[in-house]
Amino acid sequence: MIEVAGAGKDYILNGRAVTAFDGVDLEVRRGEILSVVGPSGCGKSSLLKAIAGLEPLSRGEIRFEGRRLDGPDPRIGVVFQEARLLPWLTVRENAALAARFAAHRRPGAAGEVDDLLRRVGLEAFGDAYPSQVSGGMAQRAALARTLLQRPTAILFDEPFASLDALRRMELQIWLVRMLKEEGTAALFVTHDLDEALIMGDRIAVMTPRPGRIHRIYDAPPKDRRALEQPETLAASREFWELKQSILADLRATGGLGEAMADAHVEP
Ligand SMILES: Nc1ncnc2c1ncn2[C@@H]1O[C@H](COP(=O)(O)OP(=O)(O)OP(=O)(O)O)[C@@H](O)[C@H]1O
Ligand SMILES: [Mg+2]
Predict the structure, then answer these.
(1) Candidates 18, 55, 188: which one to mutate for ligand 1, based on the most atoms within 8 Å of Cβ?
(2) What CA–CA distances, in Å, run from 223 to 92, 179, 180?
(3) pLDDT tens digits, one per residue of 217-260
(4) Would you identify the CATH topology of the domain 2-75+151-260?
(5) Where are the domains of the chain?
(6) pTM for the whole thing?
(7) Can you tell me the distance from the alpha carbon of 199 to that of 187, in angstroms, rounded to the nearest whole number?
(8) Distance 40 CA to ligand 1 centre (A)
(9) Which residues, including other chains, have CB under 8 Å from residue 171's CB and lie 6 or more apart?
(10) Helix H or strand E segment including 20
């Protein structure tokens, strides 16, 4: 559905060219969640911004449903690390703003705001301001806003990075179910290998900068029980072995930093 072919991105930083990523070929299939992991600075966010149409590529192209993309497309939603809600609007008003933008395509969007707030578990907080809700709630409000556009695909850039571990696990499972229910495809960028494995149907591993796709793995299939009890998923042999393979890749390509040094402890 989303095809990235021969993609590269150079920035000019203090008069010097920096290649963020290069030679990237990638496909996000219809309805699938593709996790992307890789060391800091390997161009994950840059790649995501290019697909979102927020930054032009230096080389290569991006196609969406067979057509070349040359800018933001309303069928592709984006969720960043911070919720980026407007502080002077309530949770409901923030979500409704997206409905207003979507209105020319879907006149019924405004009527869906409350239904979506309910689905993200924020029905009692529609009148609260962003400063009055927790980080996890703000992130769910941001997600409701994105879902109101009815995107066919959503790009996530470390959406749970600012949340504590429990909140994070709860939202991961909630999000996988939500995306699967809606049949929405996703590209999910994360630093966290467990998260990549819990979320992804496949996991792409990138090399250090200039980031390239080193390898793509199929994740172990997740049945209903696994999604209800992610801790059993994380403790399974298959999960652990896949994590070791990804760690070995990161190590072999020089991308294993301090942050991942404790990830090889056997469950
Ligand atoms: N707007 C910009 N101008 C100049 N250089 C940039 C810009 N955005 C990113 N870069 C550079 O591109 C490289 C890749 O950055 P990017 O943010 O894509 O990495 P990342 O993989 O998302 O890292 P992290 O995991 O830390 O979020 C870095 O060297 C960064 O300095
Ligand atoms: Mg980033």
Answers:
(1) 18
(2) 33, 15, 12
(3) 999 887 767 777 767 777 788 889 999 999 999 999 988 864 45
(4) Rossmann fold (3.40.50)
(5) 2-75+151-260
(6) 0.89
(7) 10
(8) 8
(9) 136, 139, 140, 160, 163
(10) strand 16-28
